[in-house]
Amino acid sequence: MTHHSGLCPLRSHMKARGVAACIVPTADPHMSEYLPARWQSRAWLSGFTGSAGTLIVTSDHAGLWTDSRYFEQAERELASSGIVLMKQRVAYAPEHLAWLAARLNAGARVAIAPDMLSLAGARQLRATLDPAGIELLLEDLPGAIWSTRPALPTAPVRAHDPAFACATRAARLASTRAQMQQAGATQHLLSSLDDIAWLTLLRGSDVEYNPVFLAHLLLDTERATLFVPPGKIDAALAAALQADGIALADYAGIGAALAALPQDATLLLDPARVAVATLATLPTGVRCIEAGNPSTAAKARKSTGELVHWREVMARDGAALVRAFRQIDTRVRAGETLSELDVDAIVCAERARETDFIAPSFATIAGYAANGALPHYRATPAHHARLQARGLLLVDSGGQYLGGTTDITRVWALGETTAEERADFTHVLAGMIALSRARFPAGASGPQLDALARAPLWAAAADYGHGTGHGVGYFLNVHEGPQGIRPPVPGGALVALEPGMVTSIEPGLYRPGRHGVRHENLAATREAAQSEFGTFLEFETLTLCPFDTRPLEPALLDAAAREWLDAYHAQVWTRLAPRLSGADRDWLEARCAPLAA
What we know:
Layout: H1 7-16, E1 21-24, H2 41-46, E2 54-58, E3 62-66, H3 71-78, E4 84-87, H4 96-103, E5 109-112, H5 119-129, E6 135-138, H6 141-145, E7 158-159, H7 162-165, H8 169-182, E8 187-190, H9 193-200, E9 202-203, E10 216-220, E11 224-228, H10 235-243, E12 246-250, H11 254-259, E13 266-269, E14 287-290, H12 294-300, H13 304-333, H14 340-352, E15 357-360, E16 365-368, E17 392-397, E18 399-401, E19 404-405, E20 408-413, H15 419-436, E21 439-441, H16 446-459, E22 469-471, E23 480-485, E24 502-505, E25 508-511, E26 515-518, E27 521-531, E28 534-541, H17 559-576, H18 582-591
Parallel strand pairs: 1-5, 3-4, 5-6, 8-13, 11-12, 13-14
Antiparallel strand pairs: 1-2, 2-3, 7-9, 8-10, 10-11, 15-18, 16-17, 17-20, 18-19, 21-28, 22-23, 24-27, 25-26, 27-28
Helix pairs in contact: 13-14, 13-18, 15-16
């Protein structure tokens, strides 16, 4: 993806349109986390390839706002671009909207593409700009000068294999309609791609790592229309959808369909997941009910059948990773030269040997030594480290399988480790175990549980800057709402953890320039006990892969944590040993050995 050359033409176009500033967000018409190439205008203009960031261009300044996960990457990718890194969520650094309001005079115009701005986002923008007398222009200025802009993706859409779907379209549509009517809505608009894929039992490959496809879905009390680019759904699948009450229409037809809604319609939509451009044609008389999509909460609660498939996927994924990690560990210790790029290749190759594997669920993070301290590090042919037979290697990776999505982080000692590395490794593991062992009342939310994972780190006067856990989709997006485990945010929604939800547990500790540690498993929430105080819940750890006990300081773990680790390793051995042989099985046995008393 070439870049930088677009800033001059963009500024010329801004001048011609009388625009003082142009905001280029990381978004598409579906408010996706990962974007189809067509909407990667921020990356095209700036050269910054991280998954989060906002570019603001004025006549004399260009700044890119991103968070601490990407500071080092952004500094490298923005070098000599004329674009300044503006650090987000850092003390005394202005956030981009405040910076913009302070920099522009009353009467100035700010442009942003309306298909990359949610309804909620537009309100937030106006709340900042209106009091300063700044006008908002909903126009895609980068799109107007991007002559090589990619077309819409053309990959086919397929039905999720019925052997793994664990549901019918009819049932999912019916339950969504029941909630729609309960809310008092006659129609429901969905633009979020994972909601649409889940509701229609369809999967695609329009977005890297996420098995989703570009679409909008409009439901009324009897029918549903799926707006999808033509040619992506074959005749047989179209007929099956028709039989389930889903008609097909062109992706570009959503505006006309909304314009045709009757004046007395009441439309249910999620203001954070629908673009301003999509709603531009909505008749003024149509009443909107703004709330989360009913499918988002339903999708988060995995069914018994889905969890059965997922447990099997975890055993396959674990076996693949044991083969990969054994190979990396033994080859480096034998003096062979491997790089972080080889780690990615080996992990992907071993996963690809497993049945029903589709693709990675995100770009592998393989960070050796100092690179492990960058939470969203990605090795490239131009920037990567060679592994040496000492220190720590952090590997965060995942797979998309027909029967579930995986996301796991393990840290391996490739040889001798320092006292600091061992202490950090153990404190983070203590935090992960503390949260994994937690029992909590029904109704408790992620922000209430977050401190359990941090307490052992806090006791060592350490902390980490990211959340502790995110929801995970079932052969869907690796990052899924509505639940999450992270520190409380003022005004943030508290979403209760419910039985069936699958969430990551991933505390970390990062020492810039030295090393990073993160341990991550996926866990399903389940019922634990009933008492006079109500229902209590707990986590069932789904991930099956040993932890490296060589860099562990057992004295820093309490008896309960050591007991949990031994029990976990016993289960990993029981589940994975039958799937492995020879050196792989021997290596697993050594890694799963109980801690010495």
